[in-house]
Each structure stands twice: as C-alpha cells, then as structure tokens.
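Entry 12.
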Amino acid sequence: MSLEGWKSLWEIGGVVLLAATFVFGAGALIVNNRISAIKSGELADFQLRFEGEQQKTAHAQQEAAEAKALAGGFERDIATANRGAAEANERATKAQASLALAEQHSAEANAKAEGFRLDIAQANARAASANETAERERLARLQLEARLADRVITPDQKQRITEAFASMGGQTVDVVIVGDTPEVSRTADAILGCLQSAGVLMNFFHPFGGGGAQGVVVGIRADAPEGDKQAGAQLVSILRETLGGGVGSADSEKIVVSGTGTMGSTPGAGPVGKSPLRLQIAPK
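Predicted 3D structure (tokens):
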C-alpha cells in the first residue's frame, strides 16, 4: 500500500476513533447524569429522613427534659414528704414519750389518791369509832343523869291522878316504899300527895331490904271493884307519860307488904293486906 493509502486509512481511523470517543463520551455523560440524578434523589430522601429523625430526636430530648424536670419535682416532693414524715415521726416519738410520762404521772397520782382514800377510810373508821365511843359515853351519861335526876310528875299529871282516885275517897291503899334516897322520897310524896288530896287512906311499909325492886308498880287485886281497877289503870297510864318504862302493873299479891321494916298508917286506914290496890315506889 502506498503512503497516501496509509494516510487515508489513518485519517479514517482517526475519524472513527473520534466518533467512537464522542459516542462513548456522550453515553458516559448520560450515564453520569442519570447516576447524579439518582444520587441527588436518594440524597434528598435521606436528607428528609435525617431531618425527620433529628426532629424525633429533638422531640424525644424535649420529652426527656420534661420528664427529668417532672422527676426532679417528684424528687423534691418526695424529699419534702420524707422530711415531713421524719418530723411527724419525731413528733410522734415525743408524743409517745409525753404519753408515757403522763401515764407515769397518772399512775403516781392514782397511787397517791388510793393512799389518800385509804387514809380517809381509816380516818373515817377512827372517827366512826370515836363517834360510837362518844355516843356510848353520852348515853351512859344520860342514863346516869336520868338515874340521878328526879322523876318528873307535872302539875297536870298530879291533877288528873287526883281526879282518877276521887271515886276511892275513904278507901285504903297499901303503899310499899323501897329505899330512902331523896329522889325516892320526892317521887313518893308527889304520887301519894295526889291520893291524899283525893281522900284516899294509906298503909305505909318501908322494908329494910329492897330486894332489887325498881320503878313504880301498881298492883290491882283481881276481885277489886271495877272503879278501883279503873283508877289503878289510869294511874299507870298517866305516870307513863313522863316516866315511860319506869311504870308497870302487876298482881297485887306480888307486892310484899310485910316483913322486916317500918310501918305506918293514916288515921282511919283499913287493915294491911285488904286493900284493892297496892303501890310500890322504888328507885329508878
């Protein structure tokens, strides 16, 4: 082949190579553009997802901060509650101590009160015993004074006794006077003076031994006239108004009008032992 032939062939080859280069270059550009477009889309989508995740992260961080702040408030509230509980426990402990002390004081006060009650009971017992003793002494003194004091027969009683025996005027009554004390004599004079004022006659007997006789005894014979019996019963009733149990009635035969002693009679008196009534006047 000639030189010009080779030159033409080279030129043709160059043209073909240039065309091929152009074609391949254009294809590569298209491919690169498509790759760039794909990458740009993916990058935009990734950017959106990244921004979304950042927003989620920011929101989560905000919620975490709020939760932390709320937890901090709870912790403060818990701390405050714990302090309050501690103070309440302290107050409860002090209150328990105060209660224990109060119970101790109450027990001591109760013990003292019980001691006082015992002392009061003993004092009351001693006072009751002293009162009982004083009452016994008072009664004994009154009894002694009553024994020593004259038996009282009032003027009204004397008047009624005289009236009761008015129906027996002129009859005889046997009288036994036991003892010679002034009180016995005054009592006998008071009673017998009424009979004497009524006109009753009397036989007097003073035994040397009284035989333990006491009080005023009115003896009424069973066969005495009814009016005489009534006079004797009225005498008992009137004298009991002031002499009480120191006056009684008995069978006239039980009143002894004889024996060792002194005797006397008012003028005109009947025989001893025949009277419808017998009176015994002895010490109280």
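Annotation: The longest strand covers residues 201-207. The radius of gyration is 74 Å.
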